[in-house]
Amino acid sequence: MQELHWKPEKKSSVPLHQQIYDYLKRKIMYGEWTVGTKIPTQRSLAKQFDVNRSTVVYALEGLIADGLLQTKVGSGTEVVNNTWSLLSSTSSPDWKSYVSSGIYKPNIDMIQEINRAEADPTIIRLGTGELSPDLLPNKKMAEIFHDHYDENFSLGYVEPKGRLSLRQAISKYLHSKEIVASPESILIVSGGLQALQLISIGLLERGSTILHETPSYLNSIHVFQSAGMNLLGVPLDMDGIKCDEIEYLKRQREAALLYTIPSFHNPTGAVMSESRRAELLKVSQNASLPIIEDDVYRELWFDVPPPSPLKAKDPQGNVLYIGSVSKTLSPGLRIGWVVGPEPVIDRLADIKMQTDYGSSSLSQFAVEKWISSGLYEHFLKDIRAELKARRDFTLQILQNYFSEIATWNIPQGGFYIWLQLTIDTSTRTLFERALTERILLNPGFIYDKQNHKHLRISYSYASMEQLESGLVQLAQLIKQKNTRFSPSE
User: Fold this and answer.
1) Which of 111, 274, 387, 473 is the one with CA 20 to 30 A from 178?
2) Is 121 found in the same domain as 56?
3) What is the pLDDT of residue 17?
């Protein structure tokens, strides 16, 4: 258990023991200290809270009387219940069994080929899932470093969970999204992908099964597969993952986790409806199935925000929440965060220290200034407007050149249009032909091996001119006979 960055207000009219009782109870109520979590010793708490030990004992006795804590001789005090598990007939996930083991390994050939092609500045990138260099706030970033370099600026290592002031800023920011998360339950990571890597090697045993939407971003990165995990797809529609199969699949394959991108899904652009989110939480709680909520696209809405995050409705600590600025502010900063129960966050922080000894202190400093100053929210408004204009421009091109050969969704945010070809065309051959014409695509079979009908079209990276010329040329390639479907594909 890491140290607690909180102290009772000694000038408050509320007694010190009551303040401590309320603070510890909140950590249990909001799932930061889940059942089985060992809390710090009385001596340690007294030191951190700067109070007499008897004051801590008085507060703990109240929690024990409420049935939330239990003291065992020789093993200390641990959480034995919370109000939700008292009311529920189902048990919350046993995170202790997840905080144990892991392993790691490589990428699929097609993704390696795409990664190599993305380094070529002469190629039109129609599938790249990041902001265009033209949209990145380079000038403002330079100003931030210039104006604030003497404010707690450090080039050294930061603590294992990340810069405290950044975690405090993120905690406050998440509260505006209805997520209650103290700095202790937040880990700073080098983007959302590292969060998945840490989870795969830090929480899961080799051979574990991960449920996910089909199609899925997971199929394109092989993070869990390379760590010896098995992926099992669950169908989705434009309201999100279909929940009716989850409980059955969990029982059949003893699934360890469920991974989902509920807001502006990658690659389909779908937004999980509010009712589907409620259903998913209920199903996962009934099945004691933890959820990884990948919410990196959440802020990129155009007209109305998506429903509240799953984590906002998660008092049991059932959800590990991933956020990032890679899709919204800068991919090069490599800063994201994981929110979850403290034992899990402690475990992931330890693994991260073994892996890279902490994310860039420069990047953490910059992101803290962006978020705490309000500049980040202001920048998001501009980015939403830019992306919406790009979406509308791309949709018009599709209408003009693809209406006879494809259908597509109209995304309400994010980066992607999920383009479905309506004529028999080999997307693998199309990928290769397009690449020879200096056009880079992301075929659907990257996200689902059985999908040979879709392309993930991104309007976030290529310039307007490139979008138009690339898509017009792509339409011509699709219509050519030598890209038609091969029976062996």
Assistant:
1) 387
2) no
3) 92
